[in-house]
Amino acid sequence: MILGIPDPLILAAYLLCFLGALWCMVYGIRHWNDTD
Q1: What string of H, E and C letters represents the secondary structure of the chain?
Q2: What is the pLDDT of residues 1-36, one digit of tens each?
Q3: Residues near 13 by Cβ (< 8 Å), separated by ≥ 6?
Q4: How far is the C-alpha of 20 from the C-alpha of 15, rounded, in Å?
Q5: CB-based contacts of 11: which residues, under 8 Å, 6+ apart?
Q6: What is the pTM of this model?
Q7: For residues 4 and 36, what is the distance between their CA atoms, to the nearest angstrom?
Q8: What angle is formed at CA 27 by the lines to CA 32 and CA 15, rounded to 5 degrees?
């Protein structure tokens, strides 16, 4: 039981959600002023 979450699939969903949001922020910052 990690962080009080008993089901590993629920933990995986939270982790993927967090990583997806982090990736969106990194991508947005890197491509902030692209002009094409």
Answers
A1: CECCECCHHHHHHHHHHHHHHHHHHHHHHHCCCCCC
A2: 677 888 889 999 999 999 999 999 999 999 998 877
A3: none
A4: 8
A5: 2, 3, 5
A6: 0.71
A7: 47
A8: 145
**20 residue type, one letter:** G
The first and second tokens of residue 33, run together, are: 């002023």
Report the alpha-carbon distance of residue 19 to residue 16 in Å, rounded: 5
Amino acid type, 4: G
Q: If we measure between CA atoms, which residue out of 28, 5, 26 comes closest to residue 15?
A: 5
Task: Kindly give, in sequence order, each residue whose CB lies less than 8 Å from that of residue 14, ignoring residues fewer than 6 positions away.
Answer: 5
